[in-house]
Structure formats: structure tokens, C-alpha cells
Amino acid sequence: TNLTQEELLSELERSMSYRILDGNVGYLQIDHIPGQEVLSQLGGFLVARVWRQLMGTSALVLDLRQCTGGHVSSIPYLISYLHPGGTVLHVDTIYNRPSNTTTELWTLPQVLGERYSAEKDVVVLTSGHTQGVAEDIVYILKQMGRAIVVGERTGGSALDLQKLRIGNSDFFLTLPVSRSLGPLGGGSQTWEGSGVLPYVGTPAEQALEKALAILTLRRALPQIIQRLEKALQDYYTLVGRVPALLHLLANMDFSAVVSEEDLVAKLNADLQAVSEDPRLLVRIIKHRQHSSESGASERLGTSPVPEDEAAQRALVDSEFQVAVLPGNVGYLRFDKFADVSVLEVL
Q1: Which of 9, 91, 243, 277, CA to CA, is 20 to 30 A from 106?
Q2: Helix (H, G, I), strand (E, B) or coil at 179
Q3: 220: domain CATH number?
Q4: Using CA atoms, how far apart are residues 247 and 270, in angstroms rounded to an integer?
Q5: 54 assigned to some structural domain
């Protein structure tokens, strides 16, 4: 308490950092969330020094993995910068036991500076150390559908704690004194006690790498959809169903897509439903690295076949996969057609 403005600035710089990552991804790490009084004093500094630098990025990563505390009064302030302007949203209701009162939290009708575009992706990183007010912010952003949460389940601690001295001793008791009633979650179902589950679970130390991979995929989505539309127009035999498929792709919601597998599953389900054609399939094709396998493929083409029988067996084993599947179903896979002269030898 009673810190000078210079001391407050020093505290903020220790608890908050930002940088621009590859792919024009903004990264903002917050380890302690200051209260509304501090934000009202230093809001101009934060907007000019930090937020304005992030406005030009194509996506934002908000790192709360080490955020163990904060002030309830700042929740609407932070949420408002990620909420579209023109509307206000009731994000939480807080019950305070000492005063036996409830306080509704709403996004701000106006903010200092600009809001982050609703068209841009936001990823929030969490860990077991993410606690208190930070958990409430994660929960609200998740329920709003505004952020993809990546990392570990949060700590499930209390929203607001008060430390009370026991008599005249040197012992203290720390008690939860405020509770989130969470209107966005529906009734009394909140994160307290259980924590917030991420959309994508991964160890906290790998969360940033995973988040960047998700953003790379989402950045590629427009090009993927464009290529898919062209393929349907150029090659799909059921020409009469192409307009409906193109309309589907143009209006498809990819907000929940966080992996290649998610994308393929969604495309196949929706495309097949509209086309009524189970043969219409999207698959992931992994490009093989140039290695001894590619050399084997070249040899299987028109190059001379080795005379040694062991080498010939190795060549066949590298190019042909044979198995008997359950139900006595034969399985044969090969990725390259060999020249007839090669087949005769093998």
C-alpha cells in the first residue's frame, strides 16, 4: 500500500512481460493481476507501452501459467479488451461473505485504447499454478468462446482470500471470503474446488509450443478451404451437389478446431452429411522425408534390382506391407507401382 507511481511501475514490469513471436503472434505473460486502482492510475502507460504493441499481431497468446493471484476488480477490465465493442456482457457475479453482498461484473462499454479484434484467435496458457482471479478470467474466456485454453487443469483455489490473526499469537488463518457464482457457466457450476479444464491438455512446460502449433494450423485454414473448394469444383463427379458443398465450406464454423484430426473429422462429417456421399473423404497426407525409404522407392521403379536375395527381400519388405486383419481380411499396401521388369525379378 501507499506505493509511489514509480514503485507501481516497477511492480508491473516484474509481473508482466510481452513480445512478438514468429508468425506475428503476440505473447503476453501476466504473473499477478493488479487491482482497478492501479489500472486506473497506470492504464495509459500499459496501453502505450504494452497493449498497443500487441494490437497489430495476427493472434494472441495470454500466458497465465504462473499467475497465482490478483484483484477481483480488474476482471471486467481485462475481459473487456477481448470482448467486441458495442455491447456489454454480464460475465460474473461475486458473493462477498464479510459484507454479505453480491456484485455483478460487466464488461466495460468503453476502454482506453483499442480492443483486440474478435476475428483474431486468442490462446490462454494454464497450469496447476494458475489460481484465484486468473482462474476466473480463464473460465470466463472459455465460456464466452473467446479463447482456446491450452495446458493443465488450473488449481481450483478460492477467488479471494483473507488472512486473519488468531488472537494475539503469531499464527494466521487464511480463509476464502468471496465466491464466483459464474452466470456464464449456468447457476452454481463454477471452477472453484475443481479448477478449469483446458480444451487441449498438455504439460505446462509444453503449452506454448502446442499453442503455436494450433495457431499455425488455424492460420492455414483459409488456404486449406480454398484448395478444397477448387478440388470439388474441378473433380467432384456429383456436380449438382457442388454448390451446396461450397456454401457449407464458406459458412463453416472452425472455432473448435485445434488439430489436424479435428479438422478432418469435422470436414468429413459435414461434407458427407450435405453430399449424402460416404465416398467423399478428406485425409491427412504426411510427406515422407527423403531417406533410405525414398531410395528404395526409386530402386523399385526402373533401377536395377540387387542380385543378392537378402537385399531383394529387404527391398520388398520396405515397399510392401502385408497383414491379415481381424475377420480374416487381407491387407496389402504399396505406395509406388514398379516397372514390370522389376516385378518379374522379385
Answers
A1: 9
A2: strand
A3: 3.30.750.44
A4: 12
A5: yes
Structurally, the chain folds into a number of domains equal to 2
Domain that holds residue 35: 5-201
**pLDDT of res. 334:** 87
- CA-wise closest residue to 31 among 129, 160, 149: 129
Q: Are residues 185 and 59 in the same domain?
A: yes
Arithmetic mean of pLDDT, 96-113: 91
Question: 233 and 195: one domain?
Answer: no
Specify whether 221 is located in the same domain as 247.
Answer: yes
Distances (CA, A) of 39 to 50, 124, 138: 13, 21, 19
Continuous H helices in the chain: 5-15, 36-46, 52-54, 75-80, 133-144, 207-235, 242-251, 260-275, 292-301, 309-319, 340-345
Q: Which CATH number belongs to the domain containing residue 90 in this structure?
A: 3.90.226.10
Tell me the pLDDT tens digit for each residue of 257-296. 899 999 999 999 999 999 999 999 999 887 655 444 455 5
Q: Which helix (H) or strand (E) segment is 320 a member of?
A: strand 320-325
Cα–Cα distance for residue pair 301/216, rounded to 1 Å: 36
The last residue of one of the domains, among 172, 201, 230, is 201
The tally of CA atoms less than 13 A away on the side-chain side of residue 215 is 28
Calculate the average pLDDT of the chain: 87
Distance CA 38, CA 10 (A): 12
Task: Specify whether 232 is located in the same domain as 101.
Answer: no
3-state SS, residue 125: strand
Report the distance separating Cα 76 and Cα 185, nearest Å.
Answer: 16
Evaluated on CA atoms 155, 78, 207, 28, the torsion sign reads negative
Identify whether residues 141 and 22 lie together within a single domain: yes
147 shares its domain with 248 = no
Q: Helix %, strand %, coil % for the chain, to 5?
A: 40, 20, 40
Of 151, 172, 201, which residue is a domain's last?
Answer: 201
